[in-house]
Amino acid sequence: MSQHHAAQFEALADLYEDLSDWPFRRYIETPSVLERVGDVRGRDLLDFGCGAGTYARRFKRAGARRVVGYDLADGMLASARRRAADEGLEIDFVAALAPELDGAFDLVVAVYVLPYAQTLSELRRMCAQMLTPLRRGGRLITLPIHPDYDPAPAYYEPFGFRMTPERAEAAHRDGARIQLDLFYQQRHDASVHAWYWSRAAIDAALRGAGADAVSWHDPQLRAAPDAPPELAAYARRPHAAIVECVRG
């Protein structure tokens, strides 16, 4: 993602922090991601595209040895640093991945990063940037737009957002632009743009960057007595998938 494109996120730190508690994330996405991540105690982790640092703080609280959060948006980084300091958590938040970070991590987590690659060459470059900080055998977990997301703009409205493809007839075509409107419980009203990439395009980009054992997973609804019943519809057609791979 370019610095110019990152500018659309400068004023959205509070929204992205709040988004972590929206029901579809609390009961479906976040537990599914954490299940894939597994035990982080004594591990070195990079939160690539960390935003306000929600996952970075969670990993540090769970016992990770070293956590680094990387983002291009200065507003996001300022919020992330402030929130970590408020919790007394030692996390480095950086706006650039220095060469000494190459091969320094056991795990890279990149949530909602690949959707902001605007071209195929940018997608390939982004995959290489996410894999380079990993040690050999280290894992990358990333969340792109689900290859089979529902292109009807109203489908995701009950979950607090709307996805509107620029061209409905080309919604599942590589490089298709999507407008994402966020409005959960009217607490926020914001829009950003994202780009769709197929499973084949993402697989090829990851493998071309040196990834092995690429696997795709749907986020799963976890049983909870207070989970809103409408989340079953989200679980049937999640807007994001979980992709896991290993640096070869």
Tell me what you see in this structure:
This protein has 248 residues and is α/β, with parallel strands linked by helices. 30% of the residues lie in helices and 24% in strands. The protein has a seven-stranded mixed sheet with strand order 3-2-1-4-5-10-9, sandwiched between helices. A three-stranded antiparallel sheet has the order 6-7-8, with no helix packed on it. The longest helix is centred in the first third of the chain and has 15 residues, at 23-37.
Average predicted confidence as pLDDT: 92
Question: What is the 3D shape?
Answer: globular
Give the radius of gyration.
Answer: 17 Å
Strand content: 15-25%
Count the E strands. 10
Low-pLDDT segments, ≥5 res = 2-11
Order of helices and strands: HHHEHEHEEHEEEEHEHE
Helix content: 25-40%
Class by SSE composition: alpha/beta
How far is the N terminus from the C terminus?
A: 24 Å
Question: How would you sum up the major sheet?
Answer: 7 strands, mixed
Strand order of the largest sheet: 3-2-1-4-5-10-9
Total number of helical segments?
8
Write the layout of secondary structure elements.
Elements: H1 3-6, H2 13-19, H3 23-37, E1 44-48, H4 54-61, E2 66-70, H5 74-86, E3 92-94, E4 105-111, H6 120-131, E5 134-143, E6 161-165, E7 177-182, E8 190-195, H7 199-208, E9 211-217, H8 231-236, E10 242-247
Parallel strand pairs: 1-2, 1-4, 2-3, 4-5
Antiparallel strand pairs: 5-10, 6-7, 7-8, 9-10
Helix pairs in contact: 6-7
